[in-house]
Amino acid sequence: SMAPPPWLRLYMRRSSMKAPISSRGVQCLFVRSSSSNSDEFISGQRRVTGGTEICGGRKGEEEVRLPFAISRLIHSSTYHSNTHAPIGFRRFSCISSDGSSGPDEEIESECDNDEEDDDVGDEMEVIGVDSSTNPEEVERVCKVIDELFALDRNMEAVLDGMKVDLSRDLIVEVLERFRHARKPAFRFFCWAAEKPGFAHDSTTYNSMMSILAKTRQFETMISLLEEMGAKGLLTMETFTIAMKAFAAAKERKKAVGIFELMKKYKFKIGVETINCLLDSLGRAKLGKEAQLLFDKLKERFTPNLMTYTVLLNGWCRVKNLMEAARIWNHMIDQGLKPDVVAHNVMLEGLLRSRKKSDAIKLFHVMRAKGPNPNVRSYTIMIRYFCKQSSVETAVDYFDDMVDSGLQPDAAVYTCLITGFGTRKQLDTVYQLLEEMQEKGHPPDGKTYNALIKLMASQKMPEHATRIYNKMIQSGIEPTIHTFNMMMKSYFVARNYETGRAVWEEMMKKGICPDDNSYTVLIRGLIGEGRSREACRYLEEMLDKGMKTPLIDYNKFAADFHRGGQPEIFEELAQRAKFSGKFAASETFAKWAQMTRRKFKQRFTEH
């Protein structure tokens, strides 16, 4: 097995007299049930095995009482390997269920993610494809769209004159570039549909569906779905996109209504489809709704281990451990053996609910009785302790993982790097980055983004730039999130010129700015006193159909108020109203009225 980094052992290793993680004593706890007046006590004969309290029964058939009345969280000492399909549906790919991927990674894949604020919409990003399209042709088309989409029909006229060689790959790549700007994306999509000799197929339709889903343009999305149905182009991916979109928007009834559309177009509704919907509801923190749907449908299909795991995940996400315990026990009643994926879901659920001691106990039970913790299990524990600034304990888990024969991956290192970075131990951070390279687990995009986010949050833009340069040198392409964090770090540090330079760099790389990009830029420009320029970008956002940014509209408006320019507010009010941004429209209208009143007073005085 791979030896842990020597410097890391020397740096954080506790006394050699300390017992290893796997054999430390852990108390067997109980809690008072909210639905009962009595306490749930551990019954039967008790003995301690490897630090874990075992309750009754013959060896090999022991039941372990864990907290919150999950009496059968570990049903027996034997372990049946993972036999179910993965929970994850990101990018709608089929992932193997060998414990290396799937729901394990889907539930919380990035160490720096906020557990309480999952960006469900990101799961619907357009699928990348191997493309044979000339990149210069894609760039040429995107430039025309970007510069001319707001000028009535001018964009289409220029595209007509370019004699673009339309292909599926080109359409998908252009849509990918404008995935955050649904209005220009949809106009391009409609223009392509009208060109002689070209017809959209399932792939291009689904790419457009994903953009509409992410921007919650549900009426247009369903119209497109029915258009696909009329042409015989529907796929399971189409229905999945729609289901996930409605679930993410907490539109449970509409999400379930996709089943009716599937029946209409003669698509079979199997356990995989139902699991997908239950999972989508759970991810949107609609665990109760997912459970109600399951109870309604359970007589019509045969639930599998994946079904119960997604329900478990749904309840854990809303921190309802009593319901999670009920699902776990019901799973066992059905003869299904919780695998390492289910255990990892429960580990995260306990930590999310601030039940640290119970999570530690469950981890020890996994070590003692199986299923053995995998890299993901350790990552969950390491991430938690790093977030709690208990880096020493996190390193103990890291050492224990390596000692058990598991090889740490980029995600584990990213957690440690974030932990040390939070404590501003930057020498250790850079040593860890080198260690990753040496051990054959080079930093990935998530590692670099986590570091850039860390530097930005600690108002260290120069270090963020250093990390960015290292990222580029490693051949890793920055994402929209990379640029957003870089830009924000400079604006917060009042280095406005460099902040604007980051925006220009993003444009040069052909990355379509999203809502956050515009919000960061507009806030930066307002802070710099360049409100007129900020106004131009705000208009651009409204034209593209994006959400109105959360900015200090009063400060923004005050600059124009002082200059006596009410027409700017009136125009913005109209644009915002046309885009359905009524609160912003009212703000702009109010400032227009105030500015006009001020102007009249000046005129009267003279």
From TrEMBL:
The keyword Repeat is assigned to this record: yes
PPR repeats (start-end): 201-235, 304-338, 339-373, 374-408, 409-443, 444-478, 479-513, 514-548
Residue stretches in coiled coil: none
GO MF annotation: an example: mRNA binding
Keywords noted in UniProt: Repeat
Superkingdom assignment: Eukaryota
Positions of the PROP1-like PPR domain: 394-543
Transmembrane spans: none
Cited InterPro entries: PPR_rpt (IPR002885), PROP1-like_PPR_dom (IPR033443), TPR-like_helical_dom_sf (IPR011990)
Region: Disordered, residue numbers: 97-119
Keyword set includes Disulfide bond: no
Compositional bias ranges of the Acidic residues kind: 103-119
Family classification: Belongs to the PPR family. P subfamily.
Name of the protein: Pentatricopeptide repeat-containing protein, mitochondrial
Organism: Noccaea caerulescens (Alpine penny-cress)
